[in-house]
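Recap slide: Major facilitator superfamily (MFS) profile domain-containing protein, sequence and predicted structure.
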Amino acid sequence: MKWEEESYSRKDDQGNLVSIDEYEREQRAGLTGMSRVMTKGDLKLYAICGVGFFLDSYDLFIINLVTPIWTYEYWGGLQGKKSPTYPLLLRGAVNAAANIGNIVGQLSFGFLGDAFGRKFVYGKEMIIMIIGVILVISLPNHLKGPTRMKFWYLFGMRILMGIGIGGDYPMSAAIVAERSSLRNRGRMLGWIFSNQGWGTLAGSIVTLILLGCFSKSLKAGHYNQLDAVWRLQIGLALVPAFATLYFRLTMPESKKFQQSGELSTFKVPSLNSLDSSESYTKDPKTETSEVDGMTGRKASIVEANVAPASSSVKMRASFQYFSEWRHLKTLIGTASTWFLVDVAFYGVNLNQSVLLTAIGFSTGKTEYETLLKNGYGNLIIAAAGYVPGYFLTIYFIEILGRRWIQIQGFLVTALMFAIIAGDYNHLGTAGKFVCFTIAQLFFNFGPNATTFIVPGEVFPSRVRGFAHGVSAATGKVGAILSGVLFNYLSGPTKIGVANVLWIFFACSILGAIMTFFFVPESKGVDADVLDFQECQEAIRIKNGH
């Protein structure tokens, strides 16, 4: 499969400077029919990077549907006990294990992707994820010792799986941003991230199908068959993983990333001391554009003073770039808002089965009926709230912009949590269920989507992997805290579910505030162009022009 590039690059194949205005004119002239929505290059990106995110989501959120089965199979739920004894903190740790691995994967793959290139690392994260999934479903039931030992094994293997999943976040975001056209970049990142919704929806559908396939045995009380159900639930993710692995491993490096990396070698020269800039070749098409006159001369000087960067230079680039407050401020904004949304988002989604039980939805006369109703509840929330939210983001992101979508999403989810928590003891099951569904809708037509999209756009390609990895990893810290503490704090002897929802409310309000003050609008903005202009501005400041 051929990888295509539709993004802006400051130099064409002959090495001539190309202005952003000229690029945009050519883009508009080439748009016809379906290409205004998604070009062939976009479809290829979606097929390769999107499948990865589908698997990421499927593997991360299937734990929500597997946990009740583990509770029945391993913790006394099939021995007639009314309250199975799956320890709350252990359950929280196993649920959060993939997110712990995410942090390692996001930081390491983001940094390595900037230092050694996208081609060097892309596909390796998929291999790690595949190995992790295989080891999870290979849990040996004959393992000697207490049941806790089996679950600490699962904890370790889910961390390994999470490293692979985490590595996909900065790499897929950077690759899509660096290969998509400027007019369609946000929408493409939205399309890629929407596979999180499809992965979650697929998890619910697969669970219901598997329960249906084993219904005869389960209705007859042969609950040992649940062992096969959960292994298939998790293991089916391997099919599309193997299908997409080859294309990731054979991806070429993008021009945009290579040209951006050159700026890491730039040192500000004097205009008077450098004559080589005058001989720099310029494309006749850009003679009337922004590369004319003094601006053009400074652009030529920048080009004359950059070169392909070594790995050691690239390793230092992120630390030099974020040593400036204006850049660090943006990173604080993208990281903190991702942290705040993940506290609430993962608190709800990793424990959705617990919440459905707490509000009285997932109940049944038998274990089979309870599991089936839990599957239906997750399916309804995914179909009615989760997936539509992504499509609203995709449709409106290039119209309304990122900041507006993120702020309104934070505020609506805060309102839903306040309604449920404020009247928790009187609001009926249907009312709570509707509020949770609306919250899911505005998580995804809101900060859950935009906190992934914005870090892929506001930072230049040479530091994008690291910045996106730091932002995502900070978010996962919130996910881990929520995943572990939710089970502990929501217990009847602690603060209870209602007060946990008040914590989610506070996080959402704070997220809206941080977005307003720290997160810039990235609609129609090419961070690599701004990075290049900063080099030109450095020349102006040094030389007084």
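The radius of gyration is 25 Å.
The first helix runs from residue 20 to 29.
(End of recap.)
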